[in-house]
């Protein structure tokens, strides 16, 4: 009986120690800035700073802080009432740290000091 008790205690301690030492980068808070502009009217819609968990999808940040519309396919179509117009070739684009991003907003996970810019603009 003592042997079973010892094994049980050792097992519990191992589980607790593993759980305590298993912190991931997603537990870290990071600072990002987010600028949203309408290039067709030279309007700044928003210019905000956020503190979020590292690895948070960009779509989650948008949905938690703005009125956004996204298609079932994950394409952004409107922010705060500013809507793309496919007939006029006006679309939302976004950059992270000055570079165009080639992945959807649901897949982009933010990192510390990211500066993200959304622009509603004519794409020719």
From TrEMBL:
InterPro entries: Transcobalamin-like_C. Pfam families: DUF4430. The keyword Signal applies. Keywords: Signal. This is DUF4430 domain-containing protein. Residues 55-121 form the Transcobalamin-like C-terminal domain. Residues 1-25 form the signal peptide. The keyword Metal-binding does not apply.
């Amino acid at each position: 009986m003592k042997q079973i008790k010892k094994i049980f205690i050792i097992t519990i301690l191992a589980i607790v120690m593993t759980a305590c030492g298993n912190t991931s980068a997603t537990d870290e808070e990071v600072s990002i800035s987010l600028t949203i502009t309408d290039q067709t009217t030279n309007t700044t819609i928003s210019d905000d700073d956020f503190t979020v968990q590292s690895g948070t999808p960009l779509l989650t940040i948008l949905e938690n802080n703005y009125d956004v519309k996204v298609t079932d396919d994950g394409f952004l179509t409107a922010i705060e009432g500013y809507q793309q117009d496919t007939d006029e070739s006006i679309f939302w684009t976004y950059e992270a740290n000055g570079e165009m991003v080639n992945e959807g907003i649901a897949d982009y996970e933010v990192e510390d000091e990211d500066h993200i810019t959304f622009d509603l603009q004519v794409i020719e």
